[in-house]
Design brief:
The chain has 331 residues and is mainly alpha-helical. The chain is built from 16 helices and no strands.
Length: 331
């Protein structure tokens, strides 16, 4: 029974170690993705492209979109004079109504004037959608509702499109980063299985991790300062994995295979790449593939898995202590 308990405990500790590796690899990938999106302003560029595409007339003219950009409602959402990364349906509708009624003569009914302006627009996706619904409207509030519903539906399509592209980017980033950092699942599991000291360090480190709230500590947000701060925390904690001697990085493998006093940094880039390529085999490629697939699931899931595994371990430890105490009392 004691041997079985130790065996099960060892398996659980290895699982906890793998969850930690996958968690921080996932966090790193998520942070890299957010930084890329932020650096290249991808969200605002994509939103601008989709709205411009909907407003672009069949003759390729962009009069309505150009006028919409001048709207104070859009200007209010701008950051550093750039097109906003997101616009609410209500703000978009306010901007459309303001744009269409900008030159309205005094005394005119705004609803009738806006309808006339819509009918006068050159053919476009936006006009065709509104033409199909505008005859059902009898007031400005109903027209606003139709515009908001159209924009919400349009943004849902954009969100679905964006999520698919982000998932592809996550897979690519995961694969590249996994190889660059030498995060081989098979090597990691083998090292965790035979290295009791490493498992003990992992458990202590895991206890620190679950005390932190994932959303507050690690999850990048759509804000430059907050994203950089979150990414700094990711790097600091990721570096702890190396301090704990986690079985990752090519430098560590190089020292193990060439002597603890060897230093991979003394090699040229081509020598590093050549040596790393020589270590590749079927098992290592499968290990990289498993890591990539696991990391692509996402950090929130691995954070929850880690918390549950640690809770199970605490329960096993408590039961073991209770059993030990009971035996002492019997004696």
């Amino acid at each position: 029974m004691i041997f079985l308990h130790m065996f099960n405990s060892q398996i659980l500790d290895v699982a906890i170690g793998m969850a930690v590796i996958y968690l921080f690899q996932s966090i790193l990938i998520s942070g890299l993705n957010e930084l890329i999106v932020m650096i290249f302003s991808l969200r605002r560029k994509i939103l601008k492209f989709f709205i411009r595409n909907a407003f672009k007339a069949d003759d390729q003219s962009e009069i309505l979109f150009t006028e919409l950009e001048r709207s104070p409602f859009i200007s209010y959402c701008r950051h550093k004079k750039k097109f906003p990364p997101e616009i609410s349906p209500n703000t978009f509708t306010d901007a459309i109504i303001e744009t269409l009624s900008r030159d309205m003569p005094a005394g005119r009914d705004i609803y009738e004037y806006v309808k006339e302006k819509i009918f006068a627009l050159p053919p476009s996706q936006f006009k065709r959608i509104l033409n199909a619904k505008i005859n059902e409207c009898s007031s400005l509030s109903e027209l606003r509702t139709e515009i908001e519903e159209w924009f919400s539906t349009y943004m849902t399509r954009l969100t679905d499109w964006y999520k698919k592209r982000v998932q592809i980017a996550i897979y690519v980033l995961s694969f590249i980063t996994t190889i660059a950092l030498n995060v081989d699942s098979f090597s990691a599991m083998n090292e965790l299985w035979r290295n009791e000291k490493l498992r003990e360090s992992v458990i202590a480190f895991s206890a620190e991790i679950i005390k932190k709230e994932y959303e507050a500590e690690y999850k990048p947000v759509n804000d430059a300062d907050s994203t950089e701060l979150a990414f700094d925390r990711i790097i600091q904690d990721y570096q702890k994995l190396s301090i704990l001697d986690f079985p990752i990085t090519w430098e560590r493998e190089y020292k193990i295979k060439n002597g603890i006093h060897t230093d991979m940094s003394k090699l040229t880039l081509m020598q590093k790449l050549k040596w790393s390529a020589q270590q590749m085999n079927l098992e290592k490629c499968l290990g990289f593939l498993i890591t990539t697939m696991a990391v692509s699931i996402g950090a929130p899931m691995w954070y929850d898995v880690l918390k549950k595994l640690m809770k199970i371990r605490e329960g096993m430890k408590k039961n073991n202590n209770d059993a030990t105490q009971a035996r002492k009392e019997d004696e």
